[in-house]
Design goal:
Elements (H helix, E strand, L loop, with lengths): L2 H6 L3 E6 L2 E6 L6 E5 L3 H22 L6 H17 L1
Antiparallel strand pairs: 1-2, 2-3
This protein binds zinc ion.
């Protein structure tokens, strides 16, 4: 996972392929997933809704840049815990 994704969160893009909702991080960090829905209409609706939500959250996320040192600290702490396993 890239540092940008760890600190800022993934920037997911959502798309529907038939009845399957797929998402991947646009920073190409390798984070992705999929979920199958009952019909293609449902998958398309969720893809449109989630994609819109992700773009809208960009503006909401901006004020939290003041918390960056705290998030870096959490990230460093998690890394430390992983190393001891
Ligand atoms: Zn990512």
């Amino acid at each position: 996972m890239s540092l940008a994704c760890t600190v800022l969160g993934h920037r997911y893009r959502f798309s529907a392929e038939g009845d399957v909702l797929r998402w991947h991080c646009r920073r190409a960090c390798g984070s992705e997933g999929q979920k199958r829905y009952a019909c293609s209409g449902q998958a398309a609706r969720y893809a449109a809704a989630f994609d819109h939500e992700d773009i809208a959250s960009l503006g909401r996320r901006a004020p939290y840049f003041g918390l960056l040192p705290l998030r870096l600290w959490h990230w460093a702490r998690r890394r430390g815990q992983q190393a001891t396993r």
